[in-house]
Design brief:
alpha/beta; Rossmann fold; 7-stranded mixed beta sheet; 15 strands
């Protein structure tokens, strides 16, 4: 199969769909790989590195989309990209269709078979292709919150770990999954006071064992969240419903409970956000203010650390990508019940039930 890797075009997106090491694996399995020139520049991998791995370098993204039988990306295709997709082609990337009906319609009209990283599953019901970026985003969320707290950025002027004689920041983490766990890990490591919320008692027990008292675990209800955000300096939204839009756990009315110039970091923004007042931002302008509360809602947080992120992502996606290339999308999904949920769009239809229901297409 001919695999194509275009350069990412989303704002400040420096990751790349395939690293040179991954290209070498595809070539070793008998596939051809074409890579748009400078696609690996963001991870310090020049074209010659890709040539040495066996790839052909092409001048334009248009050539990648025109020739490739499978396109491997990182972020969801932008309108100029989905317009170049075609029937019979495979797209393998993050899609996050639930809050993006325009993209969903564009993919349906193209006839492409679109496999979304974020809905591929594992035997334990986890999301193995979302996990590495969730780990990165969870860790970055605390860095982002700490920077946004600084007075010159509009924040309260609180140091995350405090100093002797002065209280540390209060950090509230909504969601005890991969993002929330990594956020709590970094926040406790910086010396903050941390509360982590979840609706699963077994998960709260796991977190309690994991943090050994360094983070407080709390069962998530509207009342307990309201109590926590009153004292919070930073609130991290880390709730995920696989394939569906994120629930709004903090409403606009609840912002009035919070301390002025405290910070909301919405890691769920790719799925619509878990704060009612969230809207996607970019690395160029990462924050905005609503009712005196600073919001950080960058939709591609891991793009800020592309070298780490690209390799972490490729480590996870490579076996599934090879299966798609070796067998084609239908046979690969028939053979692997965990890859099958990743197929979001096929033959002009949304075929993942959760995604279809969230979009209102079911």
């Amino acid at each position: 199969m001919l695999i194509g890797v275009p350069k990412e075009i989303k704002n400040h997106e420096y990751r790349v769909g395939l690293t040179p090491e991954a290209v070498r694996e595809y070539v070793a399995h008998g596939h051809q790989v074409i890579v748009e020139t400078t696609a690996g520049e963001g991870i310090s991998k020049p074209d010659d590195t890709y040539r040495a791995a066996g790839a052909e370098i092409v001048d334009t993204a248009a050539e990648v989309f025109a020739r490739a039988e499978m396109v491997v990306k990182v972020k969801e295709p932008q309108p100029v990209e989905w317009a170049q997709l075609r029937e019979g082609q495979i797209l393998f990337t993050y899609l996050h269709l639930a809050p993006d009906p325009d993209q969903a319609r564009g993919l349906m009209e193209s006839g492409v078979s679109a496999v979304a990283y974020e809905t591929v599953t594992a035997p334990d019901r986890s999301l193995p292709l979302l996990a590495p970026m969730s780990e990165v985003a969870g860790r970055l969320s605390i860095e982002a919150g700490a920077v946004a707290l600084r007075a010159h950025n509009g924040g309260r002027g609180v140091l995350m770990g405090g100093v002797p004689g002065v209280l540390p920041a209060n950090v509230v983490v909504l969601g005890g999954g991969v993002v929330g766990t990594q956020a709590a890990r970094i926040a406790t490591g910086m010396g903050a006071r941390v509360e982590i919320f979840d609706k699963s008692l077994p998960r709260l027990r796991q977190l309690d064992d994991m943090f050994q008292g360094r983070a407080i675990t709390r069962y998530s209800t509207m009342s307990t969240i309201e109590q926590a955000i009153e004292a919070a300096d930073v609130v991290v939204g880390a709730v995920l419903v696989p394939g569906a839009s994120a629930p709004h756990l903090v409403t606009r009315d609840m912002l009035g409970l919070m301390k002025p110039r405290s910070v909301l970091v919405d890691v769920a923004i790719d799925q619509g956000g878990c704060f009612e007042t969230s809207h996607a931002t970019t690395h160029d302008a990462p924050t905005f203010e609503v009712d005196g509360i600073i919001h950080y809602c960058v939709a591609n947080m891991p793009g800020a650390v592309p070298l780490t992120s690209s390799y972490a992502l490729n480590n996870a996606t490579l076996p599934f990508g090879l299966a798609l290339a070796n067998k084609g999308v239908v046979k690969a999904c028939e053979d692997d019940p965990h890859l099958a949920p990743g197929l979001n769009v096929h033959q002009g239809r949304i075929v993942n039930d959760t995604v279809a229901e969230s979009l209102g297409f079911s």
